[in-house]
Amino acid sequence: MTGTESAPVVRVVVADDQELVRGGFTMILDAQPDMEVVAEAGDGLQAVAAVREHAPDVLLLDIRMPRMDGIEAARIVCAESACRVLMLTTFDLDDYVYDALRAGASGFLLKDVRRDDLVNAVRVVAGGESLLAPTVTTRLIHEFTSRPGKPAAQAAGALAVLTARERETLQLIARGLSNAEIAATLVVSEHTVKTHVSNLLTKLGLRDRVQAVIAAYESGLAVPGA
């Protein structure tokens, strides 16, 4: 091994029904030394087929597409593979944001995203983190309080499998704190926080931090404005 070894290449599938948009994203990502677009798709069915064939690290997926929309495509991809899904849409108030995240998407971006932010978002999601535009986070919290979901008692009961420290960690995740910030708050090491996060995700059957935030609000463990 040498000190100049390159980082692993992030393999990406780009799915959007608008050819110009799809081509633009592909050009930007393919220009990065640590990224490779392995396939493009023009609808949800093609996106699912491309993930099955190429096993990418990240699927850049438009929410609104013909034949199969991005919500259903994300649900299938997240259930069948370890591919991370980064959703795209034209409007930050898209009615499908909540459903996309519930389906297992790890991030959400507007189509007018800047070049550097797009590249950074793919890297963040590929690295196992979650990413939301600030306006989407605000809308998501509103959805927690306005949409019917699991009965509060049922949702809260699901958290009974967590230890006291794991519940504290979940509360802090819901507040948007990073692992380093959680470690400082709980006065523990960042490694310990990572262990708590991993354990609570496993116990609750959650894919990532976005779904952890949803679980925290649905159970009443986290409250908007608190």
Description:
Helices cover 51% and strands 13% of the residues. The model has no long low-confidence stretch (mean pLDDT 83). The termini are far apart. It has helices spanning 19-30, 44-54, 70-80, 97-102, 115-126, 134-146, 152-157, 164-174, 179-186, 190-204, 209-219; strands spanning 10-15, 35-41, 58-62, 84-89, 107-110, 131-132. The protein has a six-stranded parallel β-sheet, with helices on both faces. The chain is α/β, with parallel strands linked by helices. It folds into two domains: 10-142, Rossmann fold (3-Layer(aba) Sandwich), CATH 3.40.50; 150-219, Winged helix-like DNA-binding domain superfamily/Winged helix DNA-binding domain (Arc Repressor Mutant, subunit A, Orthogonal Bundle), CATH 1.10.10.10.
Which labels suit this protein?
single chain; 226 residues; alpha/beta; Rossmann fold; Arc Repressor Mutant, subunit A; 2 domains; 6-stranded parallel sheet; 11 helices; globular
Structure summary:
The protein is 51% helix and 13% strand. It has eleven helices and six strands. Strands 2-1-3-4-5-6 form a six-stranded parallel sheet, with helices on both faces.
